[in-house]
Amino acid sequence: MPHSTIATPEAKPVANYKMATRMEGGRLLYISGQVAWDAGGNLVGKGDVRAQARQTFQNLRGVLQAAGGDLGDLMKITTYITKIEDFPAVAEVRREVFPGELPASTLIVVRSLFHPDFLIEVEGVAAV
Amino acid sequence: MDRREILAERPVERGRGFMPGVSVNPSRLLFTAGLTGRGPDGSLVAGGMAPQARRTFERLQSILGRAGGKFDDAVKQLVYVTDIDAYNASGRAERAKFFGSTRTASTGLVVRRLADPAMLIEVELVIDLAGSAQGKPLLEKYNVEQHGGDFYQGVIVNGGRLLYLAGQVANNPDGSVAGTGDWRRQAEKVYENIGHVLGAAGATPASVVKETTWVLSIDSWRQHGAPVRRALYKGDYPASTLVEIPGLARGEFLVEIEVIAAVA
After folding, report:
1. CB distance B246–A111 less than 8 Å?
2. Band (B10; pLDDT cuts 50, 70, 90)
3. Phi, psi (5° rounding) for residue B107?
4. What is the largest CA-CA distance in chain B?
5. Any chain B CB within 8 A of the CB of A105?
């Protein structure tokens, strides 16, 4: 894997994600913020954050695979949600998607995403 | 260079100027600060979204130009707006005038407030620069304007290895939150954590290339957090962005800071 994980006992993550990653080689891949669109551009799971989160991570994975990588190549993800109450459901989907440890991660509650129906958007950066 | 666009856009995404992914073989990268519609005298240009967006991209253009970069070489953009309808009505078209047919990886967010309450748009870019990193210093930090702020407008990374930190919050190693309701204590703890993580990766605060500071209140951050930040960087600032948002992962968190750094 062209990146390594940085850990330190003095500063620990608040959940199951990496504190930092360092790119050690490969190509740097920036992935656009992904939302719960299917291939045709139709929203999957209107009003259902769990369904949107699943589709969003599937789309993220699709970009990684198209670049010759997969979820394990992610160095960092940023998850944007519009309601903090949705976080537990999103965290549950993330545990399904990343059965081990998440990459370095940031979670931000924004006022909204680019369409009011989107409840979650996830962007990533990877070394592939 | 060697830029690749990854995966075709969906029908609904066509014409919007971005791709699902963009990859590069990084040799020299430019990270810009979040730029806004401030005029040469530092005040926000009048007239709303269209003039602000135009001015934002003009300023980005001069930052790119100083580094020998072009919008064509943009890898990633992050667009923060406070009014999505205004952006769709007139901001997007202004952006298109600068980017032409170039498609970047992109994220767009509607946030609560930017540096000035009247600011409608802020944009930051990552640019793949031409030329060899050989013989150049690892980091080149520069300004194209005398803005008086505590940041550099552009930071070039010549070679080296990029370090991506998770968003750092004011948590203790046992998981408890340091400084509930206390902006200054949280700022200290966040930067203490950042210092530990940087140190574990062989980096220092001077190694930080780009910083994004997410706060629940820009006014409180300026009063209590900014002095802590100044003491940490001692003038050797990264390119940075400051954004006010309605919430973070836990109700107690007042600030979350993510940094990208580079080590040899």
Report:
1. yes
2. confident
3. -135, 135
4. 51
5. yes
Last residue in a domain, options B159, B186, B209: B159
* Torsion (CA) B143, B149, B151, B155 in degrees, nearest 10: -10
Question: 10-residue block means of pLDDT along chain A (128 residues)?
Answer: 93 94 97 93 95 98 96 98 97 96 97 95 98
> Which backbone phi and psi does A3 adopt, to 5 degrees?
-145, 160
Domain match, B29 and B141 both:
yes
CB within 8 Å of B150: residues ≥ 6 apart? B226, B229, B230, B233, B237, B240
Q: Containing domain of residue B77, as a range?
A: 4-159
Which of B219, B79, B66, B91 has the alpha carbon at shortest distance from B153?
B66
- pLDDT reported for residue A41: 86
CB contact under 8 A, B161 and A23: yes
CB B20 to CB A109 under 8 A? no
Please indicate, yes or no, whether residues B130 and B191 belong to a single structural domain of this protein. Answer: no
Please report the pLDDT score of residue B199 as a whole number. 97
| Average pLDDT across chain B, whole number | 96
**In the block, residue with structure tokens 């003491």:** B231
CATH of A33-69+77-123, one of 3.30.360.10, 3.40.50.150, 1.10.1240.10, 3.30.1330.40: 3.30.1330.40
Predicted local distance difference test score (pLDDT) of residue A72: 97
Of the three residues B108, B125, B159, the one that is the final residue of a domain is B159
Residue A124 pLDDT: 98
Best residue in B9, B25, B109, B243 for a mutation probing chain A (most A CBs within 10 Å):
B109
Q: What is the pLDDT of residues B13-63, one digit of tens each?
A: 777 778 899 999 999 999 999 999 999 999 999 999 999 999 999 999 999
In the prediction, which pLDDT does A40 show?
85
Q: Are residues B139 and B238 in the same domain?
A: no
- Provide the CATH number for the domain around residue B183: 3.30.1330.40
What's the rounded Cα separation, in Å, for the pair B195 and B210? 15
- Number of domains making up chain B: 2
Same domain, B152 and B186: no
